Prior knowledge:
Layout: E1 2-3, E2 6-9, H1 13-22, E3 28-31, E4 48-49, H2 56-70, E5 82-84, E6 87-91, H3 96-106, E7 113-115, H4 117-123, E8 133-137, E9 141-143, H5 145-158, E10 162-164, E11 169-175, E12 178-183, E13 188-191, E14 193-196, H6 202-209, E15 217-226, E16 239-242, E17 248-252, E18 255-259, E19 264-265, H7 275-288, E20 296-306, E21 313-316, E22 323-327, H8 337-349, H9 360-363
Parallel strand pairs: 1-13, 2-3, 2-14, 3-10, 6-16, 14-22
Antiparallel strand pairs: 4-9, 5-9, 6-8, 7-8, 11-12, 12-13, 15-18, 15-19, 15-20, 16-17, 17-18, 21-22
Helix pairs in contact: 1-5, 1-8, 2-8
The structure holds flavin-adenine dinucleotide.
Amino acid sequence: xxxxxxxxxxxxxxxxxxxxxxxxxxxxxxxxxxxxxxxxxxxxxxxxxxxxxxxxxxxxxxxxxxxxxxxxxxxxxxxxxxxxxxxxxxxxxxxxxxxxxxxxxxxxxxxxxxxxxxxxxxxxxxxxxxxxxxxxxxxxxxxxxxxxxxxxxxxxxxxxxxxxxxxxxxxxxxxxxxxxxxxxxxxxxxxxxxxxxxxxxxxxxxxxxxxxxxxxxxxxxxxxxxxxxxxxxxxxxxxxxxxxxxxxxxxxxxxxxxxxxxxxxxxxxxxxxxxxxxxxxxxxxxxxxxxxxxxxxxxxxxxxxxxxxxxxxxxxxxxxxxxxxxxxxxxxxxxxxxxxxxxxxxxxxxxxxxxxxxxxxxxxxxxxxxxxx
Length: 373
Ligand SMILES: Cc1cc2nc3c(=O)[nH]c(=O)nc-3n(C[C@H](O)[C@H](O)[C@H](O)COP(=O)(O)OP(=O)(O)OC[C@H]3O[C@@H](n4cnc5c(N)ncnc54)[C@H](O)[C@@H]3O)c2cc1C
């Protein structure tokens, strides 16, 4: 039996960033089912930091996280955690009221520039003529998820913590004030505090532990990559998104990537792209831009996991001592990870609340109990 102060299930961005933050004060062990970190959602995202998704709470968590990406702690990562990429949200004439509403909302958090037809097409020459209105945030960040994951892992290890990969937790029990976890391989681990950061599988962990579930819904999202038209200046292109949730695209390793912003309900799994959504991505790209996709270079899918109110659940379960939820990061888990990790650490170590703009009750998992029992 290996003992720690805190056990964390999940070597994605949620588990690793919380582990790094907590390892200042405690001996932390992260258990990850896969051989590599970030194998599921955290390694399959669009890797953007922007304000065009979620609501005010998500934007507040994003804003609170930005300083970490721009100025990571000394020694966190040898590589920058990301680079500037403008974010363009564009609209047709009939979508103008929705764009106005989003502009007002984002302006609370970032400097937003209003663009007319010329401005939209100057920033993104690939868009077709229907795109006549736009808002631009020139300070979007395209993250390097590898640097972010590895930086958190490095910090965990430097502070004396450990990652144990290839250990799928198969049983969870509590006796004498201690959680005991046993993996499929038969290794056992114990600690008084268990952090459930198992992403799409987090409700399954609760089931193993005999703890009420918060009621999570994983939803699949698909991305394809393909060549840009010859002569496209990829470095100048923004992350471009329709005002409705129909399509986004951006430059990706010398090509373009696009997503039809699908939200297909799924069980927790190693998500695979479905032919329908792959075709949808290609057809929406051709409909909204001048790009003709001759060949899809690569495709992947990942799960975005939501609570019923689409806000994360962070905090101790009210009905199970020492069981801590860190789940429901939906489509914003990378860009909110520094704030979420700081919040998790403050709740576990009883430190000061680190994000005054967010009310603790809005994240408290207790709001779901009764409903999801
Ligand atoms: C297509 C797509 C685009 C996205 N775009 C963005 C974006 O632009 N910006 C942004 O911020 N976010 C984005 N996201 C969302 C972001 O990727 C997620 O919110 C985030 O990765 C969730 O992190 P996580 O650590 O909770 O989950 P995961 O990365 O899935 O980690 C959970 C881990 O728990 C492990 N686990 C599960 N069960 C067990 C067990 N029994 N024992 C041990 N380990 C276990 C799993 O193996 C997994 O590694 C996107 C997601 C997708 C799919």
